[in-house]
Amino acid sequence: MGDPYRVKPGQKVKLSDIDPRDTDALGSEDEARGRLYLDATAIDTLQDRLYAEGKRSLLVILQGMDTSGKDGTVRGVFNTTGPLGVQVTAFRRPSEEEMAHDFLWRAHLAAPRRGTIGIFNRSHYEDVLVVKVRKLVPASDIEKRYDQINAFEKMLTENGVTILKFMLHISKAEQRERLQERLDDPKKHWKFNPGDLDDRKSWGDFMDAYETMLHRCSTEWAPWRIVPADRKWARNAVIADVVRKTLEDMNPTYPKVSWDPKSIKIV
Ligand code: ADP
């Protein structure tokens, strides 16, 4: 599989031109599910090596509209990964303490420790998405944030953090189905937040904000990928493939010990 999902630095993106149901690069659903299983298993092994090496880390950033499958991605891709080495952080509305700091403060606090994989379920990008759409800070402040984010991410990468960013691209029609499911199934009522419907009403404004974010913040050091996400299996297959290849390229190694294991007798 190539990398048709990656946004090149400076590339202009029109989300309405990208089909959220596209599976062209994936082959059949059965094949993709088979690869997903193998990729998830490989990610677990690679994660063990990353942890043992203890020098670098991987940060996986997930962004997308409500119901786009951020939680489902964590379950589907990292389900076999040892819990020791993976830390998921959900970014909700900022607390009073978080609001008292710059917008990147909480993201930096949650950046992964050496040897681990950090997953951001939502992220500092909310500060150029929902914050922009709801006009929670002046536009001139938002404008500065794209460069601030790029500089922040560059600093992380220069300190051993490899960054992957996935925008889960679902259609408005698919979101309707998934929201309706939440209303129809009592076990899913807890997931339904009537406030989500406000964001749905601003769908067009959100797509504009996503396009600007993808255009301004897909960098050589921290590229965005747009993942067609109307089909859950396709979404997981694409992300698992990229995560696995990235970890393989990082090629973490088990440290060599300075003593001879053969010289030790356990009595
Ligand atoms: P999720 O929808 O991710 O499962 P929640 O239902 O707790 O989790 O929703 C989190 C909410 O927090 C979202 O509506 C999101 O827009 C909002 N949020 C996240 N970051 C910010 C931010 N920096 N400023 C304002 N709202 C934010």
Automatic annotation (TrEMBL):
Point out the coiled-coil segments of this chain: none
Q: Name the UniProt key words of this record, in alphabetical order.
A: ATP synthesis, Kinase, Transferase
Composition-biased stretches (Basic and acidic residues): 14-27
A Pfam family found in this protein is: PPK2
Q: Where is this region: Disordered?
A: 1-27
Q: Its catalytic activity?
A: [phosphate](n) + ATP = [phosphate](n+1) + ADP
Gene Ontology MF terms: kinase activity
Q: Where is the signal peptide?
A: none
The record's annotation in InterPro entries points to:
P-loop_NTPase, Polyphosphate_phosphotransfera, PPK2-rel_1, PPK2-related
**Boundaries of every Polyphosphate kinase-2-related domain copy:** 29-252
NCBIfam families assigned to the protein according to its UniProt record, in alphabetical order:
PPK2_rel_1
Q: Spell out the family assignment given in the record's similarity comment.
A: Belongs to the polyphosphate kinase 2 (PPK2) family. Class I subfamily.
Name of this protein: Polyphosphate kinase 2 family protein
Its taxonomic path starts at: Bacteria, Pseudomonadati, Pseudomonadota, Alphaproteobacteria, Hyphomicrobiales
